[in-house]
Design a protein that fits this description.
Two copies of one chain form a homodimer. Chain A is of the alpha+beta class and 360 residues long. Chain A folds into two domains: 1-69 and 334-360, Hypothetical Oxidoreductase Yiak, Chain: A, domain 1; 70-185 and 227-305, Malate/L-lactate/L-sulpholactate dehydrogenase, NADPH binding domain (Ribosomal Protein S8, Chain: A, domain 1, 2-Layer Sandwich), CATH 3.30.1370. In chain A, 42% of the residues lie in helices and 15% in strands. Chain A has helices at 10-23, 28-44, 54-62, 92-109, 125-134, 188-197, 217-223, 237-253, 260-266, 292-305, 321-333, 339-352, and strands at residues 5-8, 73-77, 81-85, 111-119, 138-143, 165-169, 177-181, 206-207, 213-214, 275-282, 335-338. In chain A, strand 6 and strand 7 form a beta hairpin. In chain A, helix 1 (10-23) packs parallel to helix 12. Chains A and B meet through strand 4, strand 6, strand 7, helix 8 and helix 9 of A and strand 4, strand 6, strand 7, helix 8 and helix 9 of B.
């Protein structure tokens, strides 16, 4: 634990955030659903997507780009698909609704797809994918992002968000295989960390407005131009760019939400951001005998963990392992909040007229 | 065109390959379906996945790992899902059957998923995804690979194939958005090209049996240990590894096909390879008003092409652009065959007792 951090229990952090959302006028059931997803990230060690987002939510509320009393509606539905309108609020509640609809449909007919439009930031994509694997289903969750920060290969301007892909599949002996990845080379959060400790970022993570690679983290944060996964043509940057576009198409073009780069260009002060998400669930039992999928996945996970390592001190892991470790540790010891984040939360609570529950 | 290349028309190449498949005992309808997919690759400039595969098919036939008279069956089916058994033959025919089933289901109920087991090499993934976009649907195609060639991050042994992902979405004014990518940093074919011209490969494409990066293309081909997309931890190699595993799970664990790395370990001389594939189709009309998806995708494609470029001589492209250019050029001028490939095809025809149609 860094010296400027304090540990708070998940329960205390949850009550502090609930008090703020309540003061913002959010309905009690929406608060609890939103916090299920946010605390999932804080417990899993994905600090950038839980309580660390409150500052953005606070700012979006002040700019009147978010309502905290959204009307969430299923606007189209058939036995295998659904389209959900988020009502212009945060993405957590409509996304839980959408993923649960996709899972219900998959449990009935083998597969379910749900798209969400008119939404906003939804936290960590992995939380939704894992809702599916918790029910014995394969889950996929993707989201577009309000503000572009990733350049296409050869481009000098950002056209996509970090457009994450999450994929979860249930095993039996092992925790689920849980992939949760931005389609950029690095996440913005990693550059923020480099900036805080005053270290250069690796060549190839970010470019300046001329499209040239830069290693100064502060310049990278102000230019907001990350490379797509792969970074350069030789190292596969066209693939990360293609994946970012695939996510954008499934989240915005399919749902009817806005393509952020075009909105920013046409109307940077647009009243709404209209972010889109995509959810897919597949029931392995529609393809395999009951239990066969989980048994085979356990075998695959075991074989991967047993792969001969290039460096014995650095064993091969499976996606989801770091989150499982973080959750066990944080449930036991608490969630570390930096002094700065703790102060931010207290300031936001004060501005909202909510009680301050996290000590200084 | 390189000096050792000859140009053959798609029609002549098709007739040569048909003569070989016929001599191998393949049924006429299987021949035509297989060649639809193979010629798609040769015309699109994906030389590694069309006629260039005949040498492998020939060898697998000699090793009795492939039947050319497979019984292809739909073994499970519901209104949104299907499981197809490839009968131990090449993957093209069961995969066309599976993708067409997924598309039929999507056109009826909004989404369709089809998995294939007991199959083998299926050519270029993009050909299947484009079958969906040709019908106005979003298409996804993935495949596992018989022999592992990609190491997990931190691993020194190959555990996955190049496990490609193809994604296609229909536009109106523009050709479809068509992503077709291996989840490794580079494809094996690129290393073969470097070997042929005697040039080192970029640092980070391949490793030796100790897991150390190597740049000698011949060593890379003999060690057969490619890195996952991203290559190193700092540049996102855990993401490419995660994507490769996602593809493996959807193609083998879901269908009940074999996880190649385990089969190779347990029984390197296994009578069958039992390769699996995965296909998904989504109907945009289940979510949007008719034509709205295509119009919005056209806007996105146009905006991406208009992105300010880092280097004006290297404009931003959209996935699928190179294939569209190659197809136009090759339909006009013919498909370039290297002297070596042309000789290989003549030798295979001779061995099969088929007529030689391609001149020397």
């Amino acid at each position: 634990m860094a010296s400027d951090e304090t540990l708070v229990s998940a329960d205390l952090l949850r009550r502090q955030l609930a008090a703020i959302f309540g003061a913002w006028g959010m309905a009690e059931d929406h608060i609890q659903t939103t916090l299920d997803i946010m605390l999932w990230a804080d417990l899993a060690g994905i600090d950038s997507h839980g309580a660390g987002m409150m500052q953005l939510y606070h700012r979006l509320r002040e700019q009147e780009k978010l309502t905290f009393r959204p009307e969430i509606r299923v606007v189209r539905e058939n036995p295998a698909t659904a389209l959900v309108d988020g009502g212009g609020g945060l993405g957590h509640v409509p996304s839980v609704r959408a993923m649960d609809l996709a899972c219900d449909k998959a449990a009935t007919i083998g597969v379910g797809v749900a798209a969400v439009r008119n939404s906003h930031h939804y936290g960590a994509a992995g939380a939704y994918a894992e809702r599916a694997s918790d029910r014995g289903l394969i889950g996929i969750a993707m989201t577009a992002v309000a503000r572009p920060s990733v350049v296409p290969l050869y481009g000098a301007d950002a056209m996509f968000g970090t457009n994450p892909i999450a994929f979860a599949a249930p095993a039996k002996r092992n925790p689920p295989f849980l992939l949760d990845m931005a389609t950029s080379t690095a996440a913005l959060g990693k550059i923020t960390i480099a900036s805080r400790v005053g270290k250069p970022i690796p060549d190839g993570w970010a470019v300046d407005p001329d499209g040239r690679s830069i290693t100064d983290p502060d310049a990278a944060l102000s230019h907001r131009r990350l490379t797509p996964l792969g970074s350069t043509r030789a190292m596969g940057g066209h693939k990360g760019y293609g994946l970012a576009m695939m996510v954008e198409v499934l989240c915005t073009t399919l749902s009817g939400a806005q393509f952020g780069a075009l909105r920013e260009r046409r109307d940077p002060d647009a009243a709404r951001h209209d972010v889109g998400h995509f959810f897919l669930a597949i029931d392995p039992d529609a393809f395999r005998e009951e239990g066969a999928f989980e048994a085979d996945l356990d075998e695959m996970i075991d074989a991967l963990r047993a792969t001969r390592a290039a460096d014995p001190a650095e064993p091969v892991q499976v996606a989801g392992d770091p989150e499982v470790r973080a959750r066990a540790e944080r449930q036991r010891n608490g969630i570390p909040l930096s002094a700065r984040l703790a102060q931010e939360l207290r300031d936001i609570a004060t501005a909202a007229g909510a009680p301050i529950l996290i000590g200084s």
